[in-house]
Amino acid sequence: GAGVSQTPSNKVTEKGKYVELRCDPISGHTALYWYRQSLGQGPEFLIYFQGTGAADDSGLPNDRFFAVRPEGSVSTLKIQRTERGDSAVYLCASSALRNTGELFFGEGSRLTVL
Amino acid sequence: AQTVTQSQPEMSVQEAETVTLSCTYDTSESNYYLFWYKQPPSRQMILVIRQEAYKQQNATENRFSVNFQKAAKSFSLKISDSQLGDTAMYFCAFTPNNAGNMLTFGGGTRLMVKP
After folding, report:
1. What's the rounded Cα separation, in Å, for the pair A26 and A12?
2. Preceding omega of A61 cis (within 30 degrees of 0)
3. Residues with Cβ < 8 Å from A110, sequence gap 6 or more?
4. Is B96 exposed, middle or buried (0-12, 13-18, 19+ CB in 10 A)?
5. CB contact residues (below 8 A), chain B span 63-102, against chain A
6. In angstroms, what separates the C-alpha of B16 from chain A's closest C-alpha?
7. SS3 string of chain A?
8. Cβ–Cβ of A48/B101 closer than 8 Å?
9. A29-50: per-residue pLDDT in tens?
């Protein structure tokens, strides 16, 4: 596609529910990143994929968070048993080149846990 | 671990004037990249400018330029001839050369350009 696409744009859920957030990267980009941005703060790294595999998941806060990228393109971030503290904007980015820092971001998915 | 600090939560500037946003970072790495990203209300982060640590020359992109002081671990962004469309959050970010583009971001500076 022309850019990184994230769905849904906004998601409101209740505490304890399961949520999936989807990211469709720029076609041909092999690297894909998930960041979480809490209100008034900078993005925090969650996980990064190179192809189908998670190259680094050190930013995932706990085992309620999981992400997959089965075919090396679309990725899904999965959050189980959501908590109010999970409320944030979840940003996805993709990159074609390694080690240049040029990431292309989507517009994010705003998650609100009531 | 790397840290990035932006000490100015908010800044304002008159249209057509110049403004400088500050950023400091802490790292033990010798080879790395530094960036400024812009985040307008649409939430989409857009790369403004990039600096490679091994280059002494400061990066410039049209109205945007940086002052990179490696010894002081300082990386400020200067916006010249500010435009209303420059109103946004600005984030300074860092990545070591061998980190697969995993960026560490600062807390951001909200810039308001006034007509």
Report:
1. 27
2. no
3. A9, A10, A11, A88, A89, A90, B43
4. buried
5. 91, 93, 95, 97-102
6. 27
7. CCCCEEECCEEEECCCCCEEEEEECCCCCCEEEEEEECCCCCCEEEEEEECCEEEECCCCCCCCEEEECCCCCCEEEEECCCCHHHCEEEEEEEECCCCCCCCEECCCEEEEEC
8. yes
9. 999 999 999 998 999 999 999 9
Cα–Cα distance between A1 and B89 in angstroms, integer?
26
Beta bridge partners of A20: A78
The total number of residues shown for chain A amounts to 114
The pLDDT tens digits of the residues spanning A85-95 come to: 999 999 999 99
A109 Cβ under 8 Å from any chain B Cβ: no
